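Q: How do we represent a protein-ligand complex in a form that can be generated token by token?
A: Start from the inputs.
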Amino acid sequence: MINSQKILLKLILLKVILLLSNHNSHSQYYLEEAFPNLPPFLTPTTIVHSNDNTNRLFAAQLKGVIYVFDNSSSVSTRKVFLNIGTKVQNTGAQEGLLGLTFHYDFPNNPHFFVHYVFDSIGSPVRKWIRVSRFTVSPSNPDSALFSSEKTLIKVPLPDRNHNGGQLAFGPDNKLYIALGDGYAGGDVSQDKTQLLGKILRIDIDSNDTGLNYSIPPDNPFFTNTSGWRKEIYAYGFRNPWKFSFDQPSGRMWLGDVGQFRYEELNVVESGKNYGWNKMEGFHCYPDTMVCDTAGRNFTLPVHEYIHLDITQPYAVICGSVYRGNKLPGLTGKLIFADFSQGNVQSLEYDGVNPPVSEVLLDTTINITSVDVDQYNEPLIVKYSGSDGRFFRLRYSGPLTIDVNVIIEGLYNLNTNTMNLSDTVTVYLHDASSPYAIIDSATSVIDSVNFKSRFNFYNSQTGLYYIKVKHKNTIETWSVEGGIQFTRGLLNTYDFTDDEIKAFGSRIKLIGDKYCLISGDINQDGVINAIDRAAVVSSLGMTGFSYTDLDGNGIVDTLDRKIVLENIGNTISAP
Ligand SMILES: [Ca+2]
Ligand SMILES: [Ca+2]
Ligand SMILES: [Ca+2]
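Then emit the structure tokens for the protein with calcium ion bound:
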């Protein structure tokens, strides 16, 4: 292998190491209004994209209007995509247009699907949930045909709340539908002859006799002969308001809104019973001590959180697992929120160990949905009857690099430590000529692990050189070509383990560690007779001194020896 190939391989390995180190101790996120030039929205419930690369967004309002507009922070106009205000019932906060999703093959298939509550005045049962299909105008992609509605599912409601609402296609191209328990105590959620309190799974690309959809033969109760509804995918839900699919992990995440005490996040799987109305979170319900669990084989949530203030209308708002590019610290974590608490949290879960939640930020807004645009970047929906808004999740923390260096003069090979912890300054330079200084940070390198954290507050993700300066070493630059550092992740850079880490290999091997070369006392970039003279003229001095290279508190012949060994060394830099 020739030398340049070796260098390339080492560079690739270096980048892999940098990408693997994940920073999870920050809480430096904030919300930024996504579309400040649009007028306020009235009762927004969800915002979706059409998965057709047009970068449009479709915002559904509880009162029945769906707006379409460009996914741009400068957008100032929106159009009415569909207005079914005359169809929806909206006399309460949970009634109205609740869910919207586009066909998985849109626009080849020009359909989209809505979930709403309507009032059939005059019928014995007045309020119903309807899931139906609409068609986009063949002549205007920003307009849907009002008269194109085809009803898929109609379910009578016992009351006005807990209607579920989410609609989404799974990776299997089946339509999943969330239905709540209808606010009548929740016995229905355990009753598989009824659709309420369930997640349904249907195939909208074909029809069974008498239906506007078909039931997939691999649904869990497809072959049952007990009168159970074959549309059911999972059951035992109270108000499953939001769910999402994460393709890389294969998980379907669902937030089930709790009653008095607990909000839950579940991983939903085929045929499973998620507990309501016998359990709330991990706890028995309504009696917290005694569970009617006989033969039910409940599946517990992955995560719950308690209602600390029982007067607050807590409601978990399940978002999706972060798969965008702008917030690398959140990659692979579920983003969720709470309606009444206004906080946004992340949940890290590997499927084996207990999940780890982190509050990313806290607000005073009512968050009703955490959706994504076509780039998988989150859009947080502020619910309001007069001032509904959409927000971006942003990261405000520094670019953070843990740097390892050893100062030659301070290094004790026998103990593999430095004689003292000492201050260094790390500069970030642009990786292309003229290599301007972008930022700097000063910190104390630990004498035992040779490491310190450097936070750069004025730097974005990018390609950089780093340069280390210490009071009496030759300034040392990082690997040729620069290093990609990512804001929002913990980056690392170790000068001690490989000569290639220093530009021009201008670093000294002592034992098996690479050390910054000591002796440039006047910091002019070269170790020469002037530096030696500085040591000689201060021989015998005690206490802090630039010429006390080994840090033992006195300038003596040992310090002079270090300078003499290194005479002729100069800076190696791009
Ligand atoms: Ca449950
Ligand atoms: Ca010098
Ligand atoms: Ca000394």
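Residues 548, 550, 552, 554-556, 558-559 surround calcium ion (ligand 3) (CB under 6 Å). Residues 20 and 491 are 9 Å apart (CA to CA).
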